[in-house]
Amino acid sequence: MADYTPSSIEPRWQRIWSERRCFEVPDLPERPRFYCLEMLPYPSGRIHMGHVRNYAIGDVMARFKVMRGFDVMHPMGWDSFGLPAENAAIQRGMHPKEWTESNITDMRGQLVRMGFAYGWSRELATHRPEYYRWNQWFFIQMFRRGLAYRSLRRVNWCPECATVLANEQVEAGVCWRCGTVVTQKELEQWFLRITRYAQELLDDLETMTGWPERVVTMQRNWIGRSEGAFVDFPVEGGAPLRVFTTRIDTIFGATFLALSPDHPVARDVMAGSSQATDVERFLQEHRNAPVGEKLSAEREKAGVFSGRYAVNPFTGSRIPIWIANFVLMEYGTGAIMGVPAHDDRDFEFATLYRLPIARVIATGDGTDPPLPFTTDEGRTIESGRFSGLPRGRARQAMIGWAEAHDFGQGSVQFRLKDWGISRQRYWGTPIPMIHCPACGVVPVAESDLPVLLPEDVLLTGKGGSPLQTSPTFAKVSCPTCGVAARRETDTMDTFMDSSWYFYRYLDPANTTAPYRPELARAWFPIDLYIGGITHAILHLMYARFFSMVMRDLGLGAPGEPVARLVCQGMVLKGGAAMSKSKGNVVAPDDMIEKYGADVTRLFVLFAAPPEKDLEWSESGIDGLHRFARRVWRIVDAHAAAVAGSPMCARPSGAAALELRRKAHQTLTRVTDDIDRRLHLNTAIAAVMELVNALYAFAPAEEGAEAMSGRPDEDRAVLGESLEILAVCLAPFAPHLASEAWELLGRKDLLATHKWPEADPAMLATATVTVVVQVNGKVRGRVEVPQGADEGSVLDAVRSDARLRGTVFPDGGGRIARTVYVPDKLLNVVIAA
Predict the structure, then answer these.
(1) Which among 258, 275, 380 has a CA at the least distance from the CA of 327?
(2) Closest by Cα among 390, 370, 429 to 133
(3) What's the whole-model pTM score?
(4) What span, in angstroms and rounded, lies between the C-alpha atoms of 9 and 619?
(5) Distance CA 610, CA 461 (A)
(6) CB 364 within 8 A of CB 378
(7) Which of 8, 500, 638, 750 is deepest in the core (most CB within 10 A)?
(8) Residues sharing a CB contact under 8 Å with residue 577, sequence separation 6 or more, in sequence order
(9) 743, 611 contact by CB (below 8 A)
(10) Which uninterrupted H or E stretch holds 705?
(11) Cβ-contact 380, 311 below 8 angstroms
C-alpha cells in the first residue's frame, strides 16, 4: 500500500489546475453565474491562519459551484497601499513599492500552495497605477457632482509627525509612532458626501436578509437616524445657541445647556466671565485627555459652569450654560439641553453639580415613577399650553410652535458623518486636484490621469505629507487657465481602494474605463462575500456607498453590491487571537510542510462553524491528518478491485444496500450543508461517517482480500461509494480527492466534474427491528428508524395496541427503569 504523501500529490494537482485554467471564467457568463469573494488581503509579507480560514471557506463554495455547473467568478488581489508599507520602507531603507511587490510574490505563492481555486488572470494590486488611476477618476466624478468637497474639520494631529491620526492611532493621548502628545486642530481636509446617501443606506438594511443581523445592527446604529428638532436658545449678551433634541416634548424641563468642549463657542462663552480661569483649565484638561477616553461612554462625567446664561424659549426661564465632557461635537450641534428628570446622563450630571431637576412627563395613570423617567410613555405635565398631551402629539405641537415663532424647526439628523479621505502620507493614491490662485481648486484633466506617485520623495515618517518633499510633483500649471499652480499633496484613505475593487476584477485590463457596465449587470450582486467582523462598519459601509454612486454614474452597479455576507470567526491559540507580539502564531507554511495543504484546510473548516472563533489545536490537526490517511488507505486498497465496475442501482445484499444508502445520504447532506446552510464542519463530519461505513464494509487493512469472493454488486457499490467520497471531499481537500478520483480510474478532472444527484430511493430513512422485553421476557417487536433514541422507541411501544397494555399496565405496577441497546433491544423493568 502506497503512503499518503501530500508533498508530491499537491504540487502536481496545482500545476494541472493552472495549466488547464480550471477556474478561469469568460467576461460574460455563459452558464448560471456565481460571484464568490473573500476580502482581499494586505500584503504584509506572509499569510496567517486567519487568511487560510477566510479563503478556505470561500474556496469550498467556489469549487462546489464549479462542480454544480456554474461560471464562478473567484478572483484574488492585494489591498497594497497603506501606512505599514511606508513604515517598513523607512525602517529598511527601501522603496514601499519594492517591499510591497516582494510580499505579493511571497503571499501569492502561499495561496497557490494552499490549492485555492482562484482565477489568477484577474489579479490586481491597488498600488499599481492601472488601478489607482480609477480611484482618481471616481474622485473627479464625485467632485463634479458635489460629492467630494474640501472643508475644515477638527482632527487628531501629531505635531512631530505633522500628520492626521485616526482615533485608533492615538494611544493614551500620544502618537503611536513617536510618542508625542496628540493635539486636535482645525485642518482643511477632503471629504466624500456619504451623508447624501444616509437614508438609502439605512432603508436598504431592511432588505439585506443575507447579512448577519449583528452587522445590520452595527450599521444601523452607525448611521444613527434621529428625528427631532433644532431649537435656538437666546444667550444673554451673545448669539443664540442652537441645540438638536429628539425629545422637544421635555423642553419645559430643561434646566441647563451643555456644550461640548470642542464646540466653536466653548471658549467664547467665557469672555468676561468670572469663571474664565476655571473654564480655561477644564478645556486644557480636555485637550490633554486621550482621544479614546473622550469618546468612551463609560467616561466619568465632568463639567464647568461657563458663567453665562441662556433663556429657555418656551418658558422664558434663565438657565445656566455649562461645558461638559459627555457632550460630543460629532452629534447634533455639539450643544444639548439638559433635562435631568428624563435623561440618564443629564440626571447624573445634574445630581453631581446640584442643578435643578424638573419633572415634565408623567405616566398615563397619574403615578410618579422614580427619576429619571426616560421611557417614551406618558403625557406632558407642567408644560404650559402643551400640558396633558401624549408625548408624540406634544412633540409635533411644540415643533410647530417653534417654527411659527422662528426659533426652531423639525429635522432629521444622522450620526453618520461625511467620509474624510485626506491622509498626510506617501503610500496612497494622490488626490487629483490642483490649487490655482486664480481658479481655486480644480480637478486634473482626465486625459492626464493617472497622477503618478513621484519617486523623488524623502520618507522619514515626519514633517507632513512626503509628496511635499518632491521637487517635481507639487509645481504644475492650472489645467483651466494655465497659470502656475500647486498639486494637492495629500493622498487618499486606503478604504478608497477597497470600496470598489470587486468591480475591477470583472475587467482588470481595461484602459478606457474602470470596467464595462454590462459586466457589472451580468455578475452583480456578489453572491457570497466573506470577511471579518472588524470590517462591519467602515469597509462595508463605504463599499455600499461606492456602489450607489457607481449606479448613479450609470456604470451598471446595483445599489447593494453584496447579497450574502459571512463574517468568519478569528483563529485563536490559547484563547487569544494569533499575533507576533503574543508569540502564538502558527505559520501556514509550517503546517503545509508537516501535514499538507489539505489537512490544514480540513482543520480550519472542521474545528468550528465558519462564524465562530476557532481554537488552534495540535491534537485537532493531528486528528485530521489521521482522517486524510484513512481516506487515502481505503481508496488505495480497493481502487484496483473496483476500477471499471458497473454501477449497481439495486444491490440485494443488506450490507451493500446499507453502504449505498449511507453514500447517497452523505451526498445529500454535504450538498445541503454547503449550498444552503454553509455548515462546513458538519459536512466534513458526514464524510467522516461515510469513511467509517466504508471501512466496516471493506476494511482497507485487508486490501484486495476484503473483496475476494464477494459478488460483483459489492464491488459496484464500493466503487460508487468511493466515487461519492471523492466528490464530497473535493471542495474541502481537493488534492487528495483528485488523486483518489484518478486512482479510481476516472479520466476527467474531478475539479470540473459534474456534481452528482443522489438516488431518491436511497434517501428514505432505514428502519430496524427492536426487541421489546418486560422484566427480561420478550413481549414483542417494534419497527423504528435506525438510530432512534430510547424515547422514540417508547413512543412506538405506546402506539402498538398489543404492547401498550403489557409495557404500560393500567394498574398494579410502574416502570422502575429501562435498559436500551440502540437499534436492538429495549428492556422495561416494572416494579411490583
Answers:
(1) 258
(2) 429
(3) 0.87
(4) 24
(5) 39
(6) yes
(7) 638
(8) 570, 571
(9) no
(10) none
(11) no
